[in-house]
Batch of 3 targets.
Target 1
Amino acid sequence: MKEQIPTKHTSGAPTLVNNFLRLRLITKTLLTVGLCCTLLGCAKNPDTQESPKTMINNVNVVDPVDGLIAQQQVVIQEDKIVYVGPIDKIKTADSDIIIDATGQFLMPGLWDMHVHFLYDEALTDTMPELFLRYGVTSVRDTGGDVKKLAALREALKGIPAPRIYFSGPLLDGEFVIYDGSDPSRPPLGASVLNAESAMSTVSTLKTAGADFIKIYELIDPATYSSLAAAAKEFDMPIAAHVPLMMTADIAGPIAGSMEHLRNIELACAVNWQELLTQRQAAIAGFTEGLGYTLRSDLHSAQRIPAINAYDETRCNEVLDTLTNTIQVPTLRLNTILMLKPFERPDWPSAATALPQKVLENWQASIAMLDANNLSIDHTFANWSQFLIARLLERGVPIGAGTDAPIGFGIPGYSLHTELELLVAGGMSTRQAIYAATVTPAKFLGLEDTMGQIKADMAADLVLLSENPLENIEHSRSIINVMSRGLWVE
């Protein structure tokens, strides 16, 4: 008898990654999909000598490239999609799973292009489950201890978990912004003192398992170039903030992605040369103190004046140099104090999945914001939203990332907020889905195996009750999530 599985999504309590709970989660997931599997994989059918198939029939495929493709059959075997098209007379076995998805919508698994598993280690173990709960099946960790991240990825092998691609530490200058000197800012960064040490730094990261490198804001131009050359030597993509001693049109084309839309405002200012000279002098004259303070002071002194001095002709010149550099705006972070996501009706319910200690800390911080009733300048928030349409107009690629859990970013949940903000900024719903599926895969050179629902691509899927191409908020209408060919409970 062919197995019919329910398609109602359920979510359990946060799961710590330890051996006992790992085994329990595997067992529960296998029972959910009705497969006879060992911990090493699914047993082959004795009659066909093939692994069991999952066949999703009559489903509407949401394709980030082609749009909606109605009434399709999608067949998954092991961890790959093996067929997409009209319902075919594919030979079935008793162990196969047949799903009637009439009226439902199948979307590729989503990516979050900017996360930090180690920003708050009280939350680290819960993050994988939360990402999957919201259909985020792949993530790019953009800064943290490389050994801890490698250990986390290893611990998650063999259980439903998002695919994790990581950079290791933020590669900074003599002064490290995230040096761990303040408990509220964990040690996510590392110093690269000069151009000569760039090659050994990148080599060490590659050996430790890093998938790309992340260059940060206090790096000097010569070391930036040397790190880029080393990354090319080891075939590692580059994510970067625009270094404070450089402009976006110089640093950007060297990188595969740039984060937060930060420091583009200086390059787009009519007086950009004057501002850059001031910035370079301040950094050169900084001989003692915290890197975090140096960066914060420069942003505070120059960001708003640069935005107020916006020059469209100059900005067009800058953006035209970035057509091969993915921008990851993290709009939900840039606008957090203006849009206050923690006041959304669904936020309290989503927040209950956080560890109690984390939730209490967040609630205390939110209460402090409300109590202080600060008069906050929203210029950068508005600038970030404004820039989306400009990026689209100039053909600059955009990727979806959140910086979760920084700034009350609930893992997974926040990615859907980011999609909504990208659409509000001018992207079509299909473009926003593309930004969270195909674009991240392209950054890592994985677009031939991930990001769409095509034969031979990874079986990372999200089954929805509503069409996200009609309304991007429907990306939240999750019925079930498949990770590496297995439905997630």
Note: The chain has a mean pLDDT of 90.
Target 2
Amino acid sequence: MSEPRAGAGGKESLQADGDAAEFDVVVIGGGPAGYATSLYAGSAGLSVAVVEKDKVGGTCLHRGCIPAKEFLETAAVYRTVSGAKEFGVQVSQPTVDFAISQDRKQKVVDQLHKGLSGLMRQRKNQTFEGTGRLLGGHVVEVTATDGSLRRIRGRNIVLAAGSVPRTIPGFAVDGRYVLTSDEVLSLTSLPRSAVVIGGGAIGCEFASMMSDLGVRVTVLEALPKLLPGCDRDVADVVARSFKKRGITVRTGVAVSGHEPHESGTTVRFGDGEQVVVDTVIVSVGRRPLSEDLLGEGTGVEVDERGFVKVDEWMRTGPDGVFAAGDLVATPQLAHVGFAEAIVIVKQILSESVTPVNYGAVPWGIYCHPEVAFVGLTEEDARTAGIDVVVKKDPFGGNSRAKILGETEGMVKVICEKRPDGSAGRLLGVHMVGPWVTEQLGQAYLSVNWEATPEEVAAFIQPHPTLSETFGETVLALTGRGLHVG
């Protein structure tokens, strides 16, 4: 592992490009990786400029994580009210006014945007509205919406331009029949039926939300199972839940196109199969927004997929030029962008820093039931030739889950097998069930600290809580469980 170079955060004068303003750090992109860089650098007293063509907060805040979870919460409230009679609460069958849900979503987004903008001002970050393009010599050209140009210069440059939804041939996005996540999150009413192309995290979240709110949903996934990359046992729980709720899931099928007509559109897939729906949602991942980002002579390289090439320290190659977030080929998660930003700023400050361990970052998927995991899946561990000890504990035995009426799911812990056959250090923890995205913290720490079951089991779990299931599973791995054999 090569050591990071000292940062270029000194106050030495740069060769000026005319009267271009100079900053310690210039960030292109105001999404999670970009604004985290600016906030962290600003808190250390560095002068920071952020170039953003839309609004700070990026896709995550305005067209991604936050709006999607707001609508998933609408679905959760709807489920709760629909099942209220089980708890003795007598209510009529609820209905959904999605326009009101959209208004509430926007209020949440606007409040968070206002707070973020204020925080950036407090850190004395300067924002330039427009599209940023890196030129040679650490110069960034900013094109404003009116077409005017200006140039600024940074002792350090951070490329964080983000990503946009991927599209597929035969499904041109028109905002009526074919939508991406951008269009879905702006809807004021829901379709009666929808095909979701892609059974990954985003596709499953949309499918779950829409189905709960009364939309007839079909999920088409080209790979053999839902949620590629998830542990198979976890993905199977989600697949069974979807089937029980009336969501049609077809895996191992490719789509070939669609034909709009008065009653919707006919989607063709598989071996001559088709389904008629009102709407098609293309959810096949996101691509880096690297086109037109780099001018001549920057020395920054882009791979064949459009990702900016970086090393483990987020360095692009030229001194003082870094990249982070969805622009690089690392997990496209906001919190990973935060971590990468800290790695970059610490180098600029010449502080001790450790690269991000991408094999042990926390993942959360907010469909119903929720999914959360960290570390190796059982299949990945065995494929790598690691002997493992595996323990699974269903939420069906958890008292808090029974109280909530949410017993679907489980906790699965994967440990390295010791020579004596007992369970050694934790390699992976995979959860599916009620509020598991809020329970992953202790599992994340356990895996990243390479803790053993004995070490983790020594900590008391409060009762009754959902988190007891993780504690019980780990305790059982010591060979002496309480409620888990």
Note: The longest strand covers residues 149-159.
Target 3
Amino acid sequence: MGKIEHAIPDVLKPTYKIPALPPKGEIETPAVLRELSRAHRHLAELKGRAAAIPNQAILIDTLALQEAKASSEIENIVTTQDELFQASLFLDGPGSPAAKEVENYRDALKRGFDSLQQNQGLLTCNAIIDMFHVLKRTEEGFRATPGTALKNDRTGTLVYVPPQDHEQIRAYMTALERFINDDQASDLDPLVKMAIIHHQFESIHPFSDGNGRIGRIINVLYLTRTGLLEIPILYLSRYITSHKSDYYRLLQAVRDDGSWEAWLLYMLGAVSTTSRETLAIVEGMRVLMADYKRRLRDHPTIRYSQDLLNNLFRHPYTRIEFLQQDLGVTRQTASKYLDQLAAAGFVEKHQQGRNNYYINTPLIELFLRVSEPGEEVSEPVKTSKIETV
């Protein structure tokens, strides 16, 4: 008997040809150029204000977790602030499955940022695969089995079929890697290029799951590699969560009829809006830290240090072991500090089982004020597996 070939059925044959980059035709239209000016202005203000926070790890740790929460909500992975920060304490296991997924996203973002720094600003396919490993806790790479298609969750309608062949996926991702890292390949504005990169990645859809989250991590890492941000803190996913139906509709419109302008205006609007929202968090943290610093210094019994202040803002939910590590003190001393802080109203003391933990309540309230849920949207598009006929 001859070798049996498992052909891809017609319903799973891609109808959109992944384009060479950069796309042909006029991309930076007058409307796009106007929106670019606004987006750059807000992003530059965020970059400048973020530099006023003395310990940048505070922003990376807290805002990465907020970004992770919002990005995961796009995929219907929903958790509360309390679940999220309790999971980071490792009190009784990893917490809810949703909180663990969000933590994985944060860890993948940080892994990508570390790779960017270690590889002289290069964002490679290997780094992207490594982020996927962290996100999904798997050793899989790019998709190797046909059968992936995007369907509308509510109606079951087939929306888009990405490339199915493994070698073709690898070739598309290699070309995308070149486009990401070659700053001389085109004279496109970096924000326009970011939007094109995101569309190309989502259209290639290289992984079996998690493509949306990895794609959104690539967005903020690209902004850091181009110098538009010093650290990956842009709270971009919250905008997409609040405008999810438009996000999927405009992604597909580029594939259907080349509607690049509408897609670029959407992404630039996301940068402008979320730059302002992230700035509100950063500025709120700066004001809170200044207030805590003044009150701690004036307190008659609490011994102030910058490391103590940093701990209370890097870990909105903190515990004795965190203080021990950050301050280099004994467990007894760390416990005494935290009880003094609770008695003075700087933190709230809570207990879970045999463990105590301490909440910086004003900081959590700041996150809740800026991160209220967005509008309800319908007909989300998710990745589904269609059995090969």
Note: Residues 29-281 form a domain with the Fic-like fold fold (CATH 1.10.3290.10).
